[in-house]
């Protein structure tokens, strides 16, 4: 198995972190979560980094949790909070598909953009669990009616719908063209101004972490260890319908 990696490049003060575990469709393994956390820590300490772009290689931004090597729930909560608390804007750039836990990464970012062909789905209910931990950044930032539909059905939805629901800042055929004025604006902004403005914008999200993180982490652990989740994950890995499918 290839060791998951996070690619890193820099251009004019913007550090680009690229999820680069294409053999698992950038699924959130323990190793990938750790590598991304380490890279973000470096960015937070580096005074030459004005902003961070989180992107991916391959056709999938993130396929959700790696069912063969899942991250510890506390570690994943820590990663989401790290993105929210980083004193520099984090911009998500998506040119592919996003599933389950990957949507938590998007919600934790400050600005998110995706190409029009990108697709999204909360697939947790289909394997017998719930989008528990990723709700920490999602619930304060996205439309509750849209979340109710897509949480409960696991339906796939497109980039314009993701933008309407508040999951994306913008969608377009050329995501780099969409992000060009955003990155230009961040480069012109003072580091102190960015840090303090981000603090204002993320206050409600961090209140949700403080209030609900322990409860939702426990819920996630309980659900993933349940009999229904074992059946759902086995069915997914064996590419068949789970026992409850009608």
Q: What does the model show?
A:
- The protein has nine helices and ten strands.
- With 246 residues, the chain is an alpha/beta fold.
- It has one domain (1-174, 194-246): 2-enoyl-CoA Hydratase, Chain A, domain 1, CATH 3.90.226.
- The strands form two sheets. A six-stranded mixed β-sheet has the order 1-2-3-5-7-10, sandwiched between helices. A four-stranded mixed β-sheet has the order 4-6-8-9.
- It is globular.
- The relative contact order is 0.14.
**Proportion of residues in β-strands:** 15-25%
> What's the total helix number?
9
CATH topology call: 2-enoyl-CoA Hydratase, Chain A, domain 1
Tell me the number of structural domains. 1
If you compute it from the alpha carbons, what radius of gyration comes out, rounded to the nearest whole angstrom?
A: 17 Å
Superfamily (CATH H level) name: 2-enoyl-CoA Hydratase, Chain A, domain 1
Helical proportion, percent range? 40-55%
What is the molecular shape?
A: globular
Question: Any low-confidence stretches, pLDDT <50, length ≥5?
Answer: none
Summarize the entry for a quick read.
This protein has 246 residues and is α/β, with parallel strands linked by helices.
């Amino acid at each position: 198995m290839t060791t998951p990696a996070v690619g890193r490049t820099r251009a004019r003060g913007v550090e680009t972190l690229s999820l680069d575990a294409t053999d698992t469709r950038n699924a959130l393994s323990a190793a990938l979560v750790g590598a991304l956390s380490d890279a973000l820590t470096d960015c937070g300490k580096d005074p030459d980094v004005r902003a961070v772009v989180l992107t991916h290689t391959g056709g999938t931004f993130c396929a959700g949790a790696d069912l063969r090597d899942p991250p510890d729930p506390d570690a994943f909560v820590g990663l989401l909070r790290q993105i929210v608390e980083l004193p520099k804007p984090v911009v998500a750039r998506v040119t592919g598909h996003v599933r389950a836990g990957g949507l938590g990464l998007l919600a934790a970012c400050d600005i998110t953009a995706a190409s029009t062909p990108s697709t999204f789905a909360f697939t947790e209910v289909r394997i017998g669990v719930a989008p528990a931990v990723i709700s920490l950044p999602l619930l304060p930032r996205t439309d509750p009616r849209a979340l109710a539909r897509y949480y409960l059905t696991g339906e796939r939805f497109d980039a314009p719908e993701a933008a309407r629901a508040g999951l994306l800042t913008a969608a377009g055929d050329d995501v780099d063209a969409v992000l060009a004025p955003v990155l230009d604006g961040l480069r012109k902004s003072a580091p102190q101004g960015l840090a303090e403005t981000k603090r204002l914008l993320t206050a409600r999200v961090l209140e949700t972490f403080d209030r609900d993180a322990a409860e939702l982490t426990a819920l996630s652990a309980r659900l993933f260890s349940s009999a229904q989740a074992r059946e759902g994950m086995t069915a997914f890995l064996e590419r068949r319908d789970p026992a409850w499918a009608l």
